[in-house]
Design brief:
Layout: E1 3-14, E2 17-29, E3 34-38, H1 45-52, E4 60-65, E5 68-69, H2 75-85, E6 86-89, H3 101-106, H4 116-129, H5 145-157, E7 163-167, H6 175-190, E8 194-198, H7 202-205, E9 210-215, E10 218-224
Helix pairs in contact: 4-5, 5-6
The structure holds adenosine-5'-diphosphate and magnesium ion.
Length: about 240
């Protein structure tokens, strides 16, 4: 068991109004799973990813990562844990604009106690893995949307996290670039990575092995997709 959420709720208070973004959500994700999340706008998908990735705190419930209760971690502990265990890919890429692909990918390594040369070596290696070996010194503006998202994926992977979250990673991409990004996520999954991805496209969700549907802050469906089973390892 990699990630276990038990009875998670997330409420936002806006003056007199309480918005329940997540309403008693429980779920377990094992090592090596590729999970897609779908649901209408406002159903709590992004909030779920933020809570599960320790970006946001739940109002109620328990989060266990690798069998450890991490619910009550303070900000410093959360930041450390995120840096070590979690990679996040955003719809808008969120790259630093005037910074090369290589330095964007190296960003999460600032907390790793490694020589600078090692930062470069690892970042170059990650960019090679996402097919951008020839774009190391380009800034985001010099890259296509699909290439920018692949830089963002390399950045999410550079610390070798246990879990990768992606919130509509193809949402800002044309069909062809979106396909490249999804193929890359599939490749990472086949290499053993655990991925939890929000998407609004059924076809993209079909590339995952398991599909969870949200409605009004709750999980209303959780089932395998109609995928030929991959060489999946269970541990
Ligand atoms: N920071 C926030 N403050 C107040 N309400 C929020 C906040 N973030 C999300 N919400 C509300 O929580 C609900 C779920 O939002 P979200 O998780 O972004 O849904 P989705 O990603 O499925 O579109 C929505 O009603 C949204 O307006
Ligand atoms: Mg969202």
């Amino acid at each position: 068991m990699l990630l276990k959420l038990s009875h998670i709720s997330k409420r936002y208070q806006l003056g007199d109004i309480t918005i329940t973004a997540l309403d008693d959500v429980s779920l377990q994700v094992d090592n090596g799973e590729f999970v897609a999340i779908m649901g209408p706008s406002g159903s709590g998908k992004s909030t779920f990813l933020q809570v599960a990735s320790m970006l946001a705190r739940p109002t109620a419930g328990v989060i266990r990562l690798k069998d450890k209760d991490v619910t009550r971690y303070n900000e410093v502990e959360r930041a450390k844990l995120r840096n070590r265990e979690i990679g996040f890919v955003f719809q808008q890429f969120n790259l630093l604009p005037r910074t090369s692909a290589l330095d964007n990918v190296a960003l999460p390594l600032v907390y790793a106690n490694l020589p600078r040369q090692e930062h470069r070596r690892r970042s170059r290696n990650m960019l090679e893995q996402v097919g951008l070996a020839d774009r190391l010194i380009n800034t985001p503006a010099q890259l296509s949307g699909g290439q920018q998202q692949r830089v963002a994926i390399a950045r999410a992977l550079v610390n070798d996290p246990s879990l990768i979250f992606a919130d509509e990673p193809t949402g800002n991409l044309d069909t062809v670039s979106g396909q490249e990004v999804i193929d890359l996520l599939k490749k990472l999954h086949s290499q053993g990575k655990t991925i939890i991805m929000v998407t609004h496209e059924e076809e993209i969700a079909g590339k995952a092995e398991r599909l969870i549907r949200f409605l009004d802050g709750r999980i209303v469906d959780d089932a395998p997709t109609l995928q030929p089973p991959s060489s999946k390892k269970n541990n």
